[in-house]
Amino acid sequence: MEVPKTTDGLQLRTGVKPVWKQMLDWGCILLASPAVLIIGLFIALVIRLGSRGPIFFYQDRVGQAGRTFRLYKFRTMKVNAETDSHRQHTQQLIRSGAPMTKLDVMDDPRLIPFGSVLRATGLDELPQLINVLRGEMSLVGPRPCIRYEYEAYEPWQRERLSAVPGLTGLWQVSGKNRLPFEDMVRLDIEYFHRQSLWLDLKIMARTLPALWDQCADQRVAKRAQATSASEEISKSVQSVRA
Protein backbone atom coordinates (compact mmCIF):
# COMPACT_ATOMS: atom_id res chain seq x y z
CA MET A 1 0.00 0.00 0.00
CA GLU A 2 1.40 3.39 -0.99
CA VAL A 3 2.10 5.77 1.88
CA PRO A 4 -0.05 8.92 1.46
CA LYS A 5 1.76 12.18 0.79
CA THR A 6 0.88 15.79 1.47
CA THR A 7 0.60 18.22 -1.40
CA ASP A 8 4.32 19.03 -1.11
CA GLY A 9 5.40 15.37 -1.15
CA LEU A 10 5.80 14.80 2.59
CA GLN A 11 5.03 11.19 3.49
CA LEU A 12 2.67 10.65 6.42
CA ARG A 13 1.69 7.55 8.35
CA THR A 14 -2.05 7.21 8.00
CA GLY A 15 -4.53 4.41 7.88
CA VAL A 16 -8.14 3.60 7.21
CA LYS A 17 -10.50 5.13 9.77
CA PRO A 18 -11.02 2.36 12.36
CA VAL A 19 -14.43 0.69 12.38
CA TRP A 20 -14.89 1.48 16.07
CA LYS A 21 -14.23 5.16 15.38
CA GLN A 22 -16.74 5.26 12.53
CA MET A 23 -19.36 3.52 14.69
CA LEU A 24 -18.69 5.88 17.62
CA ASP A 25 -19.09 8.93 15.36
CA TRP A 26 -22.34 7.77 13.79
CA GLY A 27 -23.79 6.49 17.08
CA CYS A 28 -23.12 9.73 18.97
CA ILE A 29 -24.51 11.87 16.14
CA LEU A 30 -27.65 9.72 15.98
CA LEU A 31 -28.24 9.97 19.73
CA ALA A 32 -27.57 13.70 19.86
CA SER A 33 -29.40 14.66 16.65
CA PRO A 34 -32.66 15.93 18.30
CA ALA A 35 -30.73 18.26 20.64
CA VAL A 36 -28.33 19.31 17.87
CA LEU A 37 -31.26 20.22 15.61
CA ILE A 38 -32.95 22.36 18.27
CA ILE A 39 -29.72 24.12 19.27
CA GLY A 40 -28.75 24.59 15.63
CA LEU A 41 -32.10 26.24 14.78
CA PHE A 42 -31.73 28.58 17.77
CA ILE A 43 -28.20 29.58 16.74
CA ALA A 44 -29.34 30.14 13.16
CA LEU A 45 -32.07 32.49 14.46
CA VAL A 46 -29.55 34.42 16.59
CA ILE A 47 -27.23 34.87 13.61
CA ARG A 48 -30.06 35.88 11.28
CA LEU A 49 -31.43 38.51 13.70
CA GLY A 50 -28.03 39.84 14.71
CA SER A 51 -26.23 40.21 11.40
CA ARG A 52 -26.85 40.47 7.69
CA GLY A 53 -25.37 37.67 5.65
CA PRO A 54 -25.37 33.88 5.45
CA ILE A 55 -25.93 31.68 8.49
CA PHE A 56 -23.14 29.28 7.59
CA PHE A 57 -19.49 29.92 6.91
CA TYR A 58 -17.22 27.54 5.03
CA GLN A 59 -13.47 27.47 4.62
CA ASP A 60 -10.93 25.17 3.01
CA ARG A 61 -8.89 23.33 5.64
CA VAL A 62 -5.99 20.89 5.58
CA GLY A 63 -6.93 17.48 6.93
CA GLN A 64 -5.47 13.98 7.07
CA ALA A 65 -2.33 13.51 4.95
CA GLY A 66 -2.51 17.14 3.82
CA ARG A 67 -5.74 16.69 1.87
CA THR A 68 -7.85 19.82 1.53
CA PHE A 69 -11.57 19.71 2.35
CA ARG A 70 -14.34 22.24 2.91
CA LEU A 71 -15.09 22.78 6.61
CA TYR A 72 -18.47 24.13 7.77
CA LYS A 73 -19.21 26.44 10.71
CA PHE A 74 -21.89 28.80 11.92
CA ARG A 75 -20.84 32.29 10.86
CA THR A 76 -19.56 34.34 13.82
CA MET A 77 -17.92 37.21 11.93
CA LYS A 78 -19.21 40.04 9.81
CA VAL A 79 -19.39 39.43 6.08
CA ASN A 80 -16.07 40.16 4.32
CA ALA A 81 -14.20 40.54 7.63
CA GLU A 82 -10.46 40.94 7.08
CA THR A 83 -8.26 37.88 7.74
CA ASP A 84 -4.75 39.40 7.74
CA SER A 85 -4.84 39.93 11.52
CA HIS A 86 -5.58 36.23 12.09
CA ARG A 87 -2.80 35.18 9.73
CA GLN A 88 -0.27 37.42 11.51
CA HIS A 89 -1.49 36.29 14.93
CA THR A 90 -1.17 32.61 13.98
CA GLN A 91 2.33 33.04 12.56
CA GLN A 92 3.39 34.92 15.70
CA LEU A 93 2.08 32.11 17.94
CA ILE A 94 3.97 29.48 15.93
CA ARG A 95 7.24 31.42 16.15
CA SER A 96 7.06 32.80 19.69
CA GLY A 97 6.13 29.80 21.84
CA ALA A 98 3.44 31.88 23.57
CA PRO A 99 0.15 30.27 24.72
CA MET A 100 -2.33 29.72 21.86
CA THR A 101 -4.61 32.60 22.85
CA LYS A 102 -7.31 33.38 20.30
CA LEU A 103 -7.83 36.86 18.92
CA ASP A 104 -11.46 36.81 20.01
CA VAL A 105 -10.55 36.38 23.69
CA MET A 106 -10.41 40.18 23.64
CA ASP A 107 -12.99 42.41 21.98
CA ASP A 108 -12.75 41.62 18.28
CA PRO A 109 -14.61 44.16 16.11
CA ARG A 110 -14.99 41.55 13.37
CA LEU A 111 -17.40 39.46 15.46
CA ILE A 112 -21.18 39.62 15.10
CA PRO A 113 -23.42 39.92 18.21
CA PHE A 114 -22.99 36.80 20.40
CA GLY A 115 -20.20 35.62 18.07
CA SER A 116 -17.73 35.56 20.93
CA VAL A 117 -20.08 33.37 23.00
CA LEU A 118 -20.60 30.91 20.14
CA ARG A 119 -16.85 30.59 19.61
CA ALA A 120 -15.97 30.25 23.30
CA THR A 121 -18.56 27.51 23.82
CA GLY A 122 -17.67 25.72 20.58
CA LEU A 123 -21.28 25.92 19.35
CA ASP A 124 -20.12 27.51 16.09
CA GLU A 125 -18.48 24.16 15.27
CA LEU A 126 -21.75 22.15 15.24
CA PRO A 127 -22.08 22.17 11.41
CA GLN A 128 -18.86 20.16 11.27
CA LEU A 129 -20.99 17.15 12.09
CA ILE A 130 -21.64 17.28 8.34
CA ASN A 131 -17.90 16.84 7.79
CA VAL A 132 -17.95 13.90 10.22
CA LEU A 133 -20.79 12.22 8.33
CA ARG A 134 -18.92 12.75 5.07
CA GLY A 135 -15.84 11.02 6.52
CA GLU A 136 -13.63 14.11 6.32
CA MET A 137 -13.52 14.46 10.11
CA SER A 138 -14.20 12.52 13.30
CA LEU A 139 -15.63 13.60 16.63
CA VAL A 140 -12.16 13.22 18.15
CA GLY A 141 -8.89 14.15 16.48
CA PRO A 142 -6.52 17.07 15.81
CA ARG A 143 -8.09 20.32 14.64
CA PRO A 144 -7.74 20.79 10.86
CA CYS A 145 -5.47 23.72 10.06
CA ILE A 146 -5.68 26.57 7.57
CA ARG A 147 -3.38 26.37 4.55
CA TYR A 148 -1.13 29.26 5.63
CA GLU A 149 -0.72 27.64 9.06
CA TYR A 150 0.22 24.33 7.42
CA GLU A 151 2.80 26.06 5.22
CA ALA A 152 4.53 27.42 8.35
CA TYR A 153 4.97 23.93 9.86
CA GLU A 154 8.34 22.31 10.20
CA PRO A 155 8.55 18.78 8.68
CA TRP A 156 8.17 16.99 12.05
CA GLN A 157 5.12 19.08 12.94
CA ARG A 158 3.23 17.81 9.90
CA GLU A 159 2.94 14.39 11.53
CA ARG A 160 -0.10 15.80 13.35
CA LEU A 161 -1.84 15.47 9.98
CA SER A 162 -1.52 11.68 10.18
CA ALA A 163 -4.77 11.40 12.15
CA VAL A 164 -8.29 12.15 10.93
CA PRO A 165 -9.11 15.69 12.14
CA GLY A 166 -11.78 16.12 14.81
CA LEU A 167 -14.06 18.51 16.65
CA THR A 168 -12.36 17.85 19.97
CA GLY A 169 -9.07 16.20 20.83
CA LEU A 170 -6.30 15.54 23.31
CA TRP A 171 -4.95 19.08 22.97
CA GLN A 172 -8.35 20.65 23.56
CA VAL A 173 -8.85 18.82 26.88
CA SER A 174 -5.24 19.23 28.04
CA GLY A 175 -5.09 22.99 28.32
CA LYS A 176 -5.71 24.20 24.75
CA ASN A 177 -5.27 28.01 24.74
CA ARG A 178 -3.01 27.83 27.79
CA LEU A 179 -0.43 25.79 25.85
CA PRO A 180 2.07 26.88 23.17
CA PHE A 181 1.95 25.70 19.56
CA GLU A 182 4.60 22.97 19.94
CA ASP A 183 2.71 21.40 22.85
CA MET A 184 -0.40 21.29 20.66
CA VAL A 185 1.54 19.51 17.92
CA ARG A 186 3.07 16.98 20.32
CA LEU A 187 -0.30 16.19 21.89
CA ASP A 188 -1.86 15.67 18.45
CA ILE A 189 0.98 13.35 17.43
CA GLU A 190 0.62 11.50 20.73
CA TYR A 191 -3.09 11.05 20.04
CA PHE A 192 -2.37 9.53 16.62
CA HIS A 193 -0.11 6.89 18.19
CA ARG A 194 -2.39 6.18 21.17
CA GLN A 195 -5.85 6.47 19.63
CA SER A 196 -8.35 3.92 20.88
CA LEU A 197 -12.03 3.67 21.75
CA TRP A 198 -11.28 4.19 25.45
CA LEU A 199 -9.13 7.28 24.78
CA ASP A 200 -11.80 8.81 22.53
CA LEU A 201 -14.46 8.25 25.21
CA LYS A 202 -12.21 9.86 27.85
CA ILE A 203 -11.58 12.88 25.62
CA MET A 204 -15.29 13.29 24.88
CA ALA A 205 -16.09 13.12 28.61
CA ARG A 206 -13.51 15.83 29.33
CA THR A 207 -14.65 18.15 26.53
CA LEU A 208 -17.49 19.96 28.34
CA PRO A 209 -15.34 20.74 31.44
CA ALA A 210 -12.60 21.98 29.08
CA LEU A 211 -15.09 24.28 27.34
CA TRP A 212 -16.21 25.60 30.73
CA ASP A 213 -12.60 26.41 31.62
CA GLN A 214 -12.18 28.14 28.26
CA CYS A 215 -15.21 30.33 28.90
CA ALA A 216 -13.89 31.15 32.38
CA ASP A 217 -10.51 32.12 30.94
CA GLN A 218 -12.24 34.40 28.44
CA ARG A 219 -14.23 36.13 31.19
CA VAL A 220 -11.04 36.73 33.18
CA ALA A 221 -9.24 38.09 30.12
CA LYS A 222 -12.09 40.47 29.30
CA ARG A 223 -12.24 41.69 32.91
CA ALA A 224 -8.51 42.37 32.82
CA GLN A 225 -8.91 44.22 29.53
CA ALA A 226 -11.75 46.34 30.94
CA THR A 227 -9.70 47.14 34.07
CA SER A 228 -6.70 48.11 31.95
CA ALA A 229 -8.84 50.35 29.74
CA SER A 230 -10.36 52.00 32.82
CA GLU A 231 -6.92 52.68 34.27
CA GLU A 232 -5.77 54.22 30.98
CA ILE A 233 -8.79 56.53 30.91
CA SER A 234 -8.16 57.51 34.54
CA LYS A 235 -4.51 58.33 33.78
CA SER A 236 -5.56 60.40 30.77
CA VAL A 237 -8.07 62.38 32.83
CA GLN A 238 -5.48 63.00 35.54
CA SER A 239 -2.90 64.18 33.02
CA VAL A 240 -5.42 66.62 31.50
CA ARG A 241 -6.27 68.03 34.93
CA ALA A 242 -2.61 68.40 35.76
What's this, in brief?
With 242 residues, the chain is mainly α.
Question: What report would you give on this structure?
Answer:
- It is built from seven helices and four strands; from the N terminus they run αββαααβαβαα.
- Residues 1-11 have low confidence and may be disordered.
- The chain is 50% helix and 8% strand.
- β1 and β2 form a beta hairpin.
- Strands 1-2 form a two-stranded antiparallel sheet.
- It is globular, with a radius of gyration of 19 Å.
- It is mainly alpha-helical and 242 residues long.
- The protein has one domain (19-224).
- The termini are far apart.
pLDDT < 50 stretches? 1-11
**Percent of residues in β-strands:** 5-15%
- Placed side by side, the strands forming the largest sheet appear as 1-2
What is the ordering of alpha helices and beta strands? Answer: HEEHHHEHEHH
Radius of gyration: 19 Å
The assigned structural class equals: mainly alpha
Count of DSSP E strands?
A: 4
User: Average pLDDT value?
Assistant: 85
Distance from N terminus to C terminus (CA atoms, Å) equals 77 Å
Q: Note the main sheet.
A: 2 strands, antiparallel
What count of structural domains?
A: 1
Please tally the helical runs, counting DSSP H or I stretches of 4 or more residues.
7
The helicity comes to 40-55%
Label this structure with key terms.
two-stranded antiparallel ribbon; disordered N terminus; two-stranded parallel ribbon; mainly alpha; 242 residues; 7 helices; single chain
Q: Which helices and strands, and how do they pair?
A:
Blueprint: H1 19-50, E1 56-62, E2 68-74, H2 84-96, H3 115-121, H4 129-133, E3 138-140, H5 147-150, E4 166-168, H6 181-194, H7 197-241
Parallel strand pairs: 3-4
Antiparallel strand pairs: 1-2
